[in-house]
Amino acid sequence: MEDYYDIDSILAEDQKVKCVFQDEVPGLSWLEGGYDDVLRARSKVDLPFWLAREIIDHPEGVVPLDLETPEFFGAKVRNGLRAEATMVDLPKLCPQFFRFGIHFLHLVDDASLSKVLAQAFKARLQTTMDHAQSGGNKDFTDYLSRLDETERELYKAGLESCSSLHQWNNQSLGRIRSASEMVLKRKYGQ
């Protein structure tokens, strides 16, 4: 379970999802802009994911609700991710694409989606780290614009790691002393 105060998790769970209420539900007509007191059966309502999850996970389970798979997890996007994962512009689909995918898959059993997301993430991560290892010297703005927020954070971490390694290799972070030098220093106070 993610940290309750994690802003990235909060933003991911704010994604709207289509929900289909199976039965009439008293007191929820306002969700679809109705004025009467009852939300009709088979009503489709766009709800933030966090609210849909709370309704589904309600301890009494009194509201039968089905989640529809968002379009950005549909067949067209899945095929694009299978064909060339690095070319799919994820922020246009969902800024928190992979993080939302994790939350969504906790509620919905979709082995195909899980497999596609895992393979796409691995492929994209490899390319992202390749770009980070180049030190950001080249113009990768087109590629970077297609990264979701999780990937952007990983790219930044890769850049920082590469920079630290480069500094260490150039001995600008300090010199590592050999064991014999350390013994001599202790013994003779050098």
TrEMBL record:
<keyword id="KW-0235">DNA replication</keyword>
<dbReference type="InterPro" id="IPR010492">
    <property type="entry name" value="GINS_Psf3"/>
</dbReference>
<dbReference type="InterPro" id="IPR055221">
    <property type="entry name" value="PSF3_N"/>
</dbReference>
<dbReference type="Pfam" id="PF05916">
    <property type="entry name" value="Sld5"/>
</dbReference>
<keyword id="KW-0539">Nucleus</keyword>
<feature type="domain" description="DNA replication complex GINS protein PSF3 N-terminal">
    <location>
        <begin position="5"/>
        <end position="54"/>
    </location>
</feature>
<dbReference type="GO" id="GO:1902975">
    <property type="term" value="P:mitotic DNA replication initiation"/>
</dbReference>
<feature type="domain" description="GINS subunit">
    <location>
        <begin position="75"/>
        <end position="168"/>
    </location>
</feature>
<comment type="similarity">
    <text>Belongs to the GINS3/PSF3 family.</text>
</comment>
<dbReference type="InterPro" id="IPR036224">
    <property type="entry name" value="GINS_bundle-like_dom_sf"/>
</dbReference>
<dbReference type="InterPro" id="IPR021151">
    <property type="entry name" value="GINS_A"/>
</dbReference>
<comment type="subunit">
    <text>Component of the GINS complex.</text>
</comment>
<protein>
    <recommendedName>
        <fullName>DNA replication complex GINS protein PSF3</fullName>
    </recommendedName>
</protein>
<comment type="function">
    <text>The GINS complex plays an essential role in the initiation of DNA replication.</text>
</comment>
<dbReference type="Pfam" id="PF22466">
    <property type="entry name" value="PSF3_N"/>
</dbReference>
<dbReference type="GO" id="GO:0000811">
    <property type="term" value="C:GINS complex"/>
</dbReference>
<dbReference type="InterPro" id="IPR038437">
    <property type="entry name" value="GINS_Psf3_sf"/>
</dbReference>
